Amino acid sequence: MPFISENQVRSDSAEPFEIAVPDEVLDDLRERLVRTRWPDEIPGRGWDYGTNLSYLRGLVDDWRRRYDWRAAERELNRLPHFRAEVGGLGVHFLHQRGNGPRPLPIVLSHGWPGSFIELLPLVPRLADPERWGGRAEDAFDVVVPSLPGFAFSDRPTEPGMTKTRIAGLWLRLMRDVLGYHRFAARGGDIGSGITAFLGLDHPEAVVGIHVSDVVEPYLGPGSRPLTAAEKRFREEERRWMAAEGAYDHVQATKPQTLAYGLNDSPAGMAAWIVEKLRSWSDCGGDLDGRFARDDVLTHLTIYWATETINSANRLYFERDREPRPLLPGQRVEVPCAVALFPADIDHPPREWAERAYRLERWTEMPRGGHFAAWEEPDLLAEDLRAFFRPLRAGEG
Questions:
Q1: What are 258-282's pLDDT values in tens digits?
Q2: 110 counts as catalytic
C-alpha cells in the first residue's frame, strides 16, 4: 500500500468523536428564535436589500417548530467522526475508508460560509464509487476536516490562522495522525487556497490538487501581459466585489463588531449565511429548490451550537493581515485540475489558471455553483475520479 506510511495510523493519535449538543443549548436556541425582533423592509423588493423577510420568517418558524436536531444528530453520528490534536489545535474530521483495491487518500477542504456538511454528499461517491456508477479502483480514503474555528474544531485563540498555516495542519493530520505519506487534495473557496498551498509548500506529499477557485498568480514585473479574457475577468471581479463584497470587507476589517449581533441572534446569523447560499448557488433564486431545508437547518444549527460564526468570519481578517502572493516565477508544480461551475462567483479564463498552476485538467461544468459538492456531487465526483485516475496509477 504505497499511500500508507510505515507507521500506519497511530491508535492514540485520533479519538472517535460523537456529536452531542446539550439540551440547554437547544432550549436556548428555541427561546431566542421565539423572541426574534424582526426588522421592517421595503415591500415588494424580494431579496434586493438582502435576505428577504418573508423567507427568513418561514425558515425561523421551521427551525423552531418542525426541525428535529436530534434526528439530524443521530444521522451524523453514523459517520466516522474523529478529533485529534494537530499542531496544538483540536481538529474535527471525518475519515471514511474507501471500498476498493487500493484507495487513494484525499483531503477535502470546505470554505465560507460552509462546513463539513456541504461535503457530505461527495464522501460516499468517492469512498465507494462502484455503488454510485463508478469503478472500485477509483475509490478514495476520504478525510474531511472542519477548518479551525468551524464546527467541532477548536477556535483559534491567537492571530495568524491563515490558509498557509491550515495547509500545514492538514499535512500533519494526513501524515502524522493518519499515516498517509502521499495523498490528493481538493478544495473550493477558502479550501481552494488551502489546497493550493498544500501543493505549493508540500509537493513531496501531494499527488495532485483539484480546485474550483484559482489563486491570484504573480502579475508583477516580468510577467506576460494580460490577455483580453484575463482583463475581462479582472473587471468582472471588480464589479462583483463592488456589488456583493460587503461581507468580505467587514469580515476582513471589523469581524469582532459584527460578531456581537451574529453570535447573539440565531435569526441574524441565519440571514447572514442563507443570503450567500442563495446568491452563490445555482438555484435561480429558489434556495429551497436547490438545498433541502433540513440540511440548511443542520448547517445553521452547527454554527449556532458551536458558536463559531465569529471564528469562521475571522479567517478573512487573518487573510488580509498575512497575504500570500505568489512570487515571480512561482506556481504550484504538482498536477492540478480546475473545475468551474457556471453559477460560482469567479469565472477565470484558462490562461489565468495556467499562470498559477501546472494545469492538467480544465472542466467547465454544465450546472452548479459555489457549493459544488453540495449542489452537484455526481459531476464533481466524476471529475475527481477522472483527474486522479492516471495519477494514482503513477503512484504504484
A1: 999 999 999 999 999 999 999 999 9
A2: no
